[in-house]
Specification:
The protein has 217 residues and is α/β, with parallel strands linked by helices. The chain has a single domain, classed as Aldolase class I (TIM Barrel), CATH 3.20.20.70. It is built from eleven helices and eight strands. Helix 9 links the parallel strand 7 and strand 8. The longest helix has 17 residues. The chain is globular. The chain starts with a strand and ends in a 5-residue tail after the last helix. The protein binds SN-glycerol-3-phosphate. The site of SN-glycerol-3-phosphate has 9 residues, from helix 7. This is Probable transaldolase. Transaldolase is important for the balance of metabolites in the pentose-phosphate pathway. Keywords: Cytoplasm, Pentose shunt, Schiff base, Transferase.
Length: 217
């Protein structure tokens, strides 16, 4: 499973990228707002750090506007994936931009039917939102599994990009289901390294080592 980091914060991207943990980046209008940066400027900086797909989201609500914005965002770098919403207009824009040979990430997906339509429209990525479904007492991971089944049934090549990931557990569950990519905040990716028994074991080793009076260096 590829790891994308869901942020527009350069420091976080750089830290994870240096460790080889970043296969791509996803941004959205809320993350751009949080960064306080100009969308084109910050996206260009991200693309200079990460060679994999970097999603930049359109904000128009009509297909024509999304297509124009998508083409403009694609000028930033060769690895831009244009993000459009899963609306009927978004699907129209997806078809046009995909036919032009551009990477398209169809976002705000909350149902298997929506994912099926995005694949038919030629999406490179479909972004089903796990956490926001869980927030409503629905099962976000079940949606990932349903889309996996449907895409595999028909050999759709659209990549399942599990999004709105809120916990390390979401990451391992997505990997078990077979999501192609998971995009998560940097804190969630880092939390995957945590285990209470690791901390407990390390504490015991450190105390015992001190009792030996030895030094390695
Ligand atoms: O990039 C979209 C997505 O990952 C948003 O996550 O936590 O705002 O639901 P969240």
């Amino acid at each position: 499973m590829k790891f994308f980091v869901d942020t527009a914060e350069i420091d976080q991207i750089r830290e994870l990228s240096d460790l080889g943990m970043v296969d791509g980046v996803t941004t959205n209008p809320s993350l751009i707002m949080k960064s306080g940066r100009d969308i084109k400027e910050v996206t260009a900086e991200i693309c200079s750090i990460v060679s994999g797909p970097v999603s930049a989201e359109t904000v128009a609500l009509d297909a024509e506007g999304m297509i124009a914005e998508g083409r403009e965002l694609a000028k930033i770098a060769d690895n831009i994936a244009i993000k459009v919403p899963l609306t009927w207009d978004g699907l129209k824009a997806c078809k046009v931009l995909s036919d032009e040979g551009r990477m398209v990430n169809v976002t705000l997906c909350f149902s298997a039917n929506q994912a099926l339509l995005a694949a038919k429209a030629g999406a490179t990525f479909i972004s089903p939102f796990i956490g926001r479904l869980d927030d409503l007492n629905m099962d976000g991971l079940e949606l990932i599994a349903d889309i996996r089944t449907i895409y595999d049934n028909y050999g759709f090549e659209t990549n399942i990009l599990a999004a709105s990931i809120r916990s390390a557990n979401h990451m391992s569950e997505c990997a078990k289901i077979g999501a192609d990519v998971a995009t998560a905040p940097a804190a969630v990716i880092k939390a995957m390294a945590n285990h209470v028994l690791t901390d407990k074991g390390l504490d015991a080793f450190t105390k015992d080592w001190a009792k030996t009076g030895q030094k390695i260096l």
